[in-house]
Write a structure and sequence with these properties.
The protein has helices at about 15-25, 40-50, 65-75, 90-100, 110-150, 155-185, 190-215, 225-235, 260-280, 325-335, and strands spanning about 5-10, 30-35, 55-60, 60, 65, 80-85, 105, 220-225, 245-255, 260, 290-300, 300-310, 340-345, 350-355. It has about 350 residues and is α/β, with parallel strands linked by helices. The longest helix has about 40 residues, at about 110-150.
Length: about 350
């Protein structure tokens, strides 16, 4: 019998008790996989990075309300099913539906009954999402078929559309893999296993960002590093380990450097590994510091990627011959893949540099 995957749900609330209640009644059932956002701004970023089938949002939010957040999402073209939760009047309920909410739930006095109703409502919203996704898939298939026919006739614009569609589907497949890993990380009780799964998710995210960039870009050949690298930094900043909140991740990228996909994917994973390694081993808990990613032109035909950290916990040197972690072994292998040269400077803040060829 086929096991159905948990429904990915984004729960937006600035009240920790509401999040704890949702986790206890919904997440533990195994039918849903919840992520929590504590502000509309954080929720918007998470929706941009991940694919959710349902958004649940508290009506009352600090400095704003759920309807304003809903307005912002709908104005951006985001059509994910949206459930508003509150303790409000019939007028608010009607306004919510008129402004594009799919459902409104009154919290009421019976906490258990409320979560039973919310569970059922999320399932209804998920079915609505799945039906809409099937329609988009069918439309995409029709577009692909039409594009392939036109591409065979040698129409370059249609070929570009086909390539964009491929990047879009690859990105979605990578996000699906990421969701599966997230589901397993929630279910495991072993901290080491959970850490491994989260590291894998971040590696996949660095690849998915490239395909998302190419899908949205007019340039289907190369990726501008000044656009791509900050997105990796943002993704890892949002997932800093406990005690690393004061560590800032800074990027400096030469705006003229663009890489083809065969070079960009290894570079993205290398950046992910070096930042992750620095967050794990470079700082003591509560320490204030910086991780700086620089990409510049080293000499004609060569670019340099450098990741520096100011942490006090870093070992005095990194052994490149016998990398102690899978991450460092991966960095070495990927450096070889892009014909790069890896070097370490630890006469002060630890700095790891990779010089590699690229086409200007």
């Amino acid at each position: 019998m086929m096991v159905k995957s948990p429904v990915p749900v984004l729960y937006v609330a600035d009240d920790l008790r509401a999040c704890e209640g949702a986790y206890h009644f919904l997440q533990k059932s195994g039918e849903m996989s919840l992520d929590f956002a504590f502000s509309p701004e954080e929720a918007t970023e998470m929706l941009y990075r991940n694919e959710y089938h349902v958004v649940v949002c508290e009506y009352r939010l600090k400095g704003t309300d759920g309807l304003s957040f809903l307005d912002d999402l709908r104005s951006q073209g985001e059509r994910v099913p949206f459930i508003i939760v509150g303790d409000d009047t019939e007028g608010v309920i009607i306004e919510a539906i008129n402004r594009g909410a799919d459902f409104f739930l009154n919290r009421g006095e019976n906490r258990f009954q409320f979560y039973v109703e919310l569970n059922l409502t999320i399932k209804r919203a998920a079915r609505k999402y799945e039906a809409s996704a099937r329609e988009r898939q069918e439309e995409g298939n029709r577009r692909c078929h039409t594009t392939i026919v036109h591409s065979a006739k040698g129409e370059p614009d249609e070929k570009d559309i086909l390539i964009q569609e491929v990047h879009h589907r690859v990105k979605n497949n990578l996000q699906l893999i990421s969701s599966i890993l997230k589901m397993h990380s929630y279910r495991t009780t072993d901290s080491e296993t959970r850490e491994i799964l989260e590291d894998c998710r971040n590696r996949i995210a660095s690849m998915a960002l490239i395909h998302e960039y190419l899908y949205r870009s007019d340039n289907l050949v190369s990726i501008r590093m000044a656009d791509y690298v900050p997105r990796i930094a943002e993704n890892l900043s949002a997932q800093k380990p406990y005690g690393m909140e004061k560590v800032e991740i800074i990027t400096h990228c030469d705006p003229t450097i663009s890489l083809d996909i065969d070079t960009c994917i290894p570079c993205g994973i290398i950046i992910n590994e070096l930042i992750t390694n620095a967050l794990k081993y470079g700082f003591v808990k509560g320490e204030k510091g910086e991780i700086v990613i620089d990409i510049d032109q080293y000499r004609r035909g060569f670019a340099r990627l450098r990741v520096s950290e100011s942490g006090s916990a870093t070992k005095s040197s990194v052994n490149l011959e016998n990398g102690e972690t899978l991450g460092m072994q991966l960095v070495k292998n990927l450096t070889t893949q892009i014909d790069g040269t890896l070097s370490v400077s630890d006469g002060g803040p630890l700095s790891i540099s990779i010089v590699f060829p690229y086409t200007e």
